[in-house]
Amino acid sequence: MKLLAENGLQHSPSCISIIQYSKKLGDAAVINDIGQIAKALNEFKPNILILREENITDVIRAYRDKYNLKIIAYGSTYPECPYADLTLQTNLDYPLTNLDVLTYREDVEKTDVSVFVNDPIFAFLAEFLAKNYNVKVYGSVKINSPKYLGHTTDVEKYEILNKSKQSIVFNLVDMHESITLGAYPIAYSTSKLDTIKTFDNMISLMSCMEFVSDELHNSKLIEDLLSDLQNKQLEHNSLTFVIDTLQTLGFKEEANKLLLTLEEIKKEKMNDWVLS
C-alpha cells in the first residue's frame, strides 16, 4: 500500500496517525508542490491520496477513476466532500492516544507530581504550582523557580511520567501520554470531563490539587479513574482510527494486519494494567 499526502497536512493529528501506520504497511510520502500532483501520481502511483478538498482537481478525479485511487479529503464540507472517499473535518481533528508510547512504560515507584507547560499564557499557573505545591515543572516555558527543571525530549518526558503519580497538563498529547504511562492527569480544559479533573483558572486548579492531595480518601478513586481511562485508550486510539479508516476505504487486508497488532498490544498490556 502506498500513500501520498499534501504538504502541511502531515502535521495534522489524524494525518500523522495515517502516515505512521501506512509506513508500517508499505510506503508513505509527502508532495511539497501540489502543482506537481499529476507528475507525483504517475511516478509514485499511490493507492491513497490525502489532500485538502479544494485541491481535488479534474486531473485527480480522472486518475482516481482510472486507477481506483482512494481519496481522503480534509475540509469543512458537511457531511462529506463529493469527490472524496472519506472526508475529515479539520475543525474536529484532534490528537488521539499513540499506543507506541506503551513501549516506554516501566514498573517503577511513582512519587512525583509533574507539571508540563509549553505555552507562555500558562506560565503564571506553573509559577503558582511551584510556589504552593510539591511539584516538578518541565517544558519550554521557563519560570523563576528552583522547581523548574527545564525542557525535555519526548523520551525524557516518558521517563518522568513513569515516575509520576499525577501530572498537570495543558494539552491533549500530554494528557494522553500521562494516562498511558500511569500518571493521573489534571488537565486544563474549559469543559468538564467525566473521569479527569479539569481546571480553567486558579480557583479550579486549587480544587483539583486538593482532590489529588487527599490520598487518604481519594487514592482508590483516582486508581479506579486511571484504570477506566486506560481501558478506554485501548479501545479508542490512533491505531483503531487508522484501522477504521482503512476498512472504510476497502483495504481489508491492511486493516486486518493492524488488527493483529492491536490484539497483540492488548494481550501484552492488559496484564500490566488493573482492568475493571
Gross morphology: elongated
Radius of gyration: 21 Å
The CATH topology label of the largest domain is Rossmann fold
Strand content: 15-25%
Average of the residue pLDDT scores: 93
Structural class: alpha/beta
Instruction: Describe the largest sheet.
Output: 5 strands, parallel
- The number of distinct β-strands equals 10
* Helical amount: 40-55%
The domain tally reads: 2
Stretches with pLDDT under 50, minimum 5 residues: none
- Distance from N terminus to C terminus (CA atoms, Å) equals 38 Å
Counting H and I runs of at least 4 residues, what is the number of helices?
Answer: 10
CATH superfamily placement of the largest domain = Glycogen Phosphorylase B
Overall CATH class of the largest domain: Alpha Beta
User: What is the spatial order of strands in the main beta sheet?
Assistant: 2-1-3-4-5
CATH architecture field of the largest domain = 3-Layer(aba) Sandwich
Characterization of this structure:
- The protein has 276 residues and is of the alpha/beta class.
- It contains 10 helices and 10 strands.
- α4 links the parallel β6 and β7.
- α1 crosses α9 and α9 runs antiparallel to α10.
- The longest helix is centred in the C-terminal third of the chain and has 21 residues, at 215-235.
Break the fold down into its secondary structure elements and pairings.
Elements: E1 2-6, H1 13-25, E2 27-31, H2 37-44, E3 48-52, H3 58-67, E4 70-75, E5 86-89, E6 112-116, H4 123-132, E7 136-138, H5 154-162, E8 164-169, H6 172-180, E9 184-188, E10 197-199, H7 202-213, H8 215-235, H9 238-249, H10 252-269
Parallel strand pairs: 1-2, 1-3, 3-4, 4-5, 6-7, 6-8, 8-9, 9-10
Helix pairs in contact: 1-9, 9-10
